[in-house]
Design goal:
Elements lengths: L1 E10 L2 H12 L9 E10 L2 E9 L13 E2 L7 E9 L2 H7 L11 H10 L10 E9 L4 E6 L8 E5 L4 E4 L11 E6 L4 E5 L7 E4 L4 H4 L11 H14 L7 E4 L4 H13 L14 E6 L4 H13 L2 E6 L2 H6 L1 H8 L5 H16 L4 E3 L4 H5 L11 H13 L5 H10 L4 E3 L5 H8 L9 E5 L5 E2 L3 H6 L10 H4 L6 H4 L2 H14 L2 H5 L1 H4 L8 H14 L6 H5 L20 H5 L25 H19 L15 H14 L1 H11 L7 H4 L10
Parallel strand pairs: 13-14, 13-16, 14-15, 16-17
Antiparallel strand pairs: 1-3, 1-9, 2-3, 4-5, 5-6, 6-7, 7-11, 8-9, 8-10, 11-12, 18-19
Helix pairs in contact: 5-14, 9-10, 9-21, 10-13, 18-21, 25-26
């Protein structure tokens, strides 16, 4: 895992441009603390390309794995950078007969491009990746992102016609040479041929579940196949040349991954410390549900377990930095504990962790799925949730761990597991707690996954863990954190300010004071006073949510539609601790806002499901950022009013994304 940043066909003085690019690239230092290298190529007088790599060395540490990469070190005619891990790199080396001094797993990307072509090469990569390839023989520029967007990538257009790519938005948001930026869509490849003004977008990950909204799979699940698919995904992701650990909340998903890792570490041929015990980590406020459950699992599996504690006050201290790294105002509740946990993990010498994201989206694990009105709608919601993960849990898992130079791997979002789960009949996923199977087990959320690993003769987990009710991570670390954040927002945002929220935030006004506070922090970092501030809003999702639902699923319950919404699992009556939880009533302003956001989100789902962005960086000194922010406000007071009038017209996705078809896009 690393940080990548590149600017192609930039005009101007080469030395000045290098200094400018270097300063921007420093904002990715947290993603790649182990090494820094840059490839500079001059296309013509005062026209250059800079390809920057900030490395976190996991596979082949040392010079043998450094980037930028070349298929031929002597000519350097195909230069590429990549962020991620390619788990089938050894197989590709054999298949493509790659004999190269660089031993990075990402080395195979360039060779796959040369062997299979710009549009097809991504299909041959098993892993998580964001990559940029400059073919200097043909003048072609190529960029591609993995099927789920597990690795972040943003894209920008320069005022001089240049094209920019970055792992994080903070590298792009404030550069005066950037005309516009957006998210790079997951599962897409972008190709720009020599002398073309615009590149062409093609969806390389073209499974039917994501390209056909009316597709409802009929194949029934095979428990053994499902179990073997998940086990293989975890085993493949043990690939590491450095110490690693497992994130263990005590819930189903993280517990299964921990169990599989413990079972297979000794026999793994591609892993570090195969004879050592697995280390597991959990975090929470003392007495939190997750801590108790995780300890039980750790004791059962025999891991070396570490409990990390935090207080609500420490979590609130981290809010500005979390929003800066996260680059959104969503997922903050779950992001803060993960941010604090990652710092502790890095301090103990671990550079990689396995994490359990994905199962709730693939198998309908969130508690609101109890109210799915039909199997067809159940599947469609799984498809909506899974296809949007790059803006939610996947973004949180990557950016919160990488804020401290730790790589998170998500086995349950491997192509194999995703394809199996999303081509499974929704009849195998439907929830009915009033019904028992032949073994007396309730049809709980994620029943089919639980059942696949319910092997009494050789149990993966204690039964009380395997069949434990779903607990949202932000809830499981301690209800005091969520409640404390709400109370903090009540103190920071006055009733008068909140009453005028539609004036302050004309684009989808925040329905609660919590979101008012988080939006304010986000705007300070990425919006206020920046020429391209509106582009930051195009990279984040909007819309009401109940227990982490999509805006579309809020329509499943009339009472949900009347509420302001809340992502907590306690927002659903089936939760064991839902008694007394107040969703609150929605006002007319936020109701109409949520409705428009929902329709926007729907159009997003039916079109590109992605965009492109650029990255800008942060000064580690929060006070100096605030001082700069104040100076900007004094300079742009008049302009701010005109900016707000502009934001009223912003939708959920960029105008460029709205013009995209499901198969080919044009970046404008």
């Amino acid at each position: 895992m690393c940080g990548i940043f590149s600017a192609h066909f930039v005009t101007g003085n080469p030395k000045a441009n290098r200094e400018r690019l270097y300063k921007l690239a420093k904002r990715l230092r947290h993603r790649g603390p182990d090494s820094y290298k840059i490839d500079k190529f001059e296309h013509a007088s005062n026209v250059q390309t800079f390809m920057v790599h900030k490395r976190l060395a996991i596979v082949a540490p040392g010079e043998s794995g450094d980037q930028p990469l070349y298929t031929d070190n002597s000519t350097k005619s195909t230069c590429f950078i990549a962020n991620g891990e390619i788990y089938n790199h050894q197989k590709l080396r054999e298949t493509l007969k790659i004999d190269h001094a660089n031993k990075s797993d990402c080395q195979v990307i360039g060779h796959a491009y040369e062997a299979f072509g710009a549009v097809e090469f991504s299909k041959h990569l098993d892993g998580m990746f964001a990559t940029v390839i400059e073919d200097r023989k043909t003048g072609r520029l190529v960029a591609s992102r993995d099927h789920m967007g597990k690795i972040p990538m943003y894209m920008a257009k320069g005022k001089d016609g240049s094209v920019w790519f970055a792992s994080e938005m903070k590298c792009l948001h404030d550069d005066p040479g950037v005309e516009s930026y957006q998210l790079f869509p997951p599962g897409f490849v972008w190709v720009k041929e020599k002398d073309e003004k615009e590149g062409t977008w093609t969806r390389w990950y073209d499974e039917k579940w994501i390209t056909d909204e009316e597709y409802i799979p009929e194949k029934r699940a095979d428990l053994s196949e499902l179990r073997e698919t998940v086990v293989k995904a975890v085993k493949d992701r043990l690939m590491s040349d450095v110490p690693y650990a497992v994130l263990l909340s005590g819930g189903l998903d993280s517990s299964l991954i921990t169990s599989i890792a413990v079972r297979n570490r000794a026999s793994a041929t591609n892993t570090y410390g195969s004879t050592e015990k697995v280390h597991s980590f959990s975090i929470g406020i003392k007495g939190a549900p997750d801590l108790k459950a995780a300890k039980k699992v750790a004791d059962h599996l025999g891991t070396i377990h570490h409990e990390i504690y935090f207080t609500p006050e420490e979590a609130l201290d981290a809010l500005p930095d979390v929003v800066w790294h996260l680059e959104t105002f969503e997922q903050v509740r779950a992001s803060v504990p993960m941010y604090l946990l990652s710092r502790a993990i890095k301090s103990m010498g671990f550079k990689m962790v396995l994490s359990g994201e994905g199962a709730d989206e693939l198998f309908g694990g969130y508690l609101y799925f109890h109210k799915a009105p039909s199997p067809e709608e159940f599947h469609k919601e799984c498809a909506r949730k899974t296809s949007r993960l790059h803006q939610w849990d996947v973004a949180r898992a990557n950016k919160m761990t990488m804020a401290w130079g730790v790589e998170a791997r998500t086995p349950l979002l491997s192509k194999a597991v995703v394809n199996y789960a999303m081509n499974m009949s929704p009849l195998d996923k439907m929830i009915d707690v009033n019904k028992l199977d032949q073994d007396g087990k309730k049809y709980l959320e994620k029943y089919i996954l639980r059942k696949a690993f319910d092997t009494p003769d050789d149990p993966y987990l204690p039964e009380e863990v395997l069949w434990r009710q779903k607990e949202q991570f932000s809830d499981g670390v301690g209800y005091d954190w969520v409640d404390g954040l709400k109370e903090h927002a009540e103190e920071k945002v006055s009733d008068e300010e909140f009453a005028k929220r539609a004036e302050r935030f004309p684009l989808s006004p925040p329905p609660t004071k919590e979101y008012y506070l988080l939006r304010s922090i986000f705007e300070e970092h990425f919006v206020t006073g920046f020429e391209n501030g509106q582009d930051a809003y195009k990279t984040v999702p909007f819309g009401k949510s109940i227990a982490c639902s999509t805006p579309e699923a809020v329509a499943w319950d009339p009472e949900w539609e009347k509420s302001v919404g809340d992502i907590s699992g306690r927002a659903v009556a089936v939760h064991d601790s839902s008694d007394g939880f107040d969703l609150g009533k929605d006002s007319e302003t936020s109701t109409s806002s949520s409705s428009s956001s929902s329709s926007s989100s729907s159009s997003y789902s039916s079109s590109a499901r992605a965009e492109t962005v650029t990255v800008a960086a942060m000064n580690n000194n929060t006070e100096s950022r605030r001082a700069r922010h104040s100076r900007r406000l004094s300079r742009v007071g008049a302009r701010r009013g005109s900016f707000r009038s502009t934001t009223k017209a912003l939708g959920f996705i960029s105008q460029a994304a709205q013009r995209m078809s499901s198969s080919a896009y044009a970046f404008v």
